[in-house]
Amino acid sequence: MKVLFEHDFQKKLMTQAFEAPVELAKPSDVLRWRSQWTAALGSWHSPYKLLVDATNLTIHDTPEVRKALETMVKFFQGFYLRQVVGYGFDAAKSHAALPFTTLPTEEEAAIELGVRVPAKREATDFRSTIQLQNHFQTHTVELNFSEPVKIETKEQVATLRSKLTNNLMQWHSKWSLMIDCTNLEISPDVDEEFDKMWQVLKGFFMKQVIGYSPKVARESYPFDVYRARHKAAAFIEGEGNFSGDKADCKSRRKA
Questions:
Q1: How far from 5 is each of 37, 50, 176, 244, CA to CA, in Å?
Q2: Which of 117, 169, 196, 206 to pair with 101, CA 20 to 30 A apart?
Q3: What is the DSSP-derived secondary structure letter of residue 200?
């Protein structure tokens, strides 16, 4: 079981979806869901609403499973959860056993929850490949991509910028951005868009951006790139409060 989480801190909305078909056949299956949900709460420090995509979810409607589900929801209501609504209702999958309202469509669920329908993902599902980790002790945000991607459109840069700025709702101090380039290629066509994004992020206290493990030539990235992660991390740890002026697409491309 793998639960996919999206956090919109501005709207105070969490969304959950199951990456592949899942069956909740016994209480231990519910506990696996609860465990991943608990881990995701590390990002939250305020009340939130939850939108659940139940499309890939099948429930064995037994008293034990129903009780486990009810206990799970009550548990999270004690940790900032204010309301939860699901969508993708299917009677054949026993969605009626869920201890929260589940409606046929995402639009109906969003209305029930009192939120706007989340923006549709791009056809390539680029947004879902973007993964962020916050390392608060080292004042670092680490960015990686779950699948190989090539950023070559303004829309992709805008999506990345949106996810980064949304993540910054959790930050109250200066930070550095460290990018895993293992699955990343960037077209020179979007140099100007990256330059704009860096300027915006500097306004949100970003100190520096450093990459590591390049998929292609290091010179093709609009930021400095190291061969190994530990070297990038060591650079950030040794810099302290630096300006981040090397995050300039145009000068990097010409170097």
A1: 8, 10, 23, 30
A2: 169
A3: H
DSSP 209-226: EEEES-SS-GGGSSSEEE
Token pair of 239 as six digits? 């810099």
Residue type, 89: F
Residues in the chain: 255
- 3-state DSSP helix/strand/coil % of the chain, to nearest 5: 40, 25, 35
How many Å apart are CA 160 and CA 130, to the nearest integer? 7
| Contact (Cβ atoms closer than 8 angstroms) between residue 55 and residue 20 | no
**Residue-level pLDDT, tens digit, the chain, 255 residues:** 989 888 887 788 999 999 899 999 999 999 999 999 998 887 777 899 999 999 999 999 999 999 999 999 999 998 889 999 999 999 999 999 999 999 999 999 999 999 876 555 543 488 888 988 888 888 899 999 988 999 999 999 999 998 898 888 778 788 999 999 999 999 999 999 999 999 999 888 899 999 999 999 988 999 999 988 888 888 887 654 333 333 334 434 433
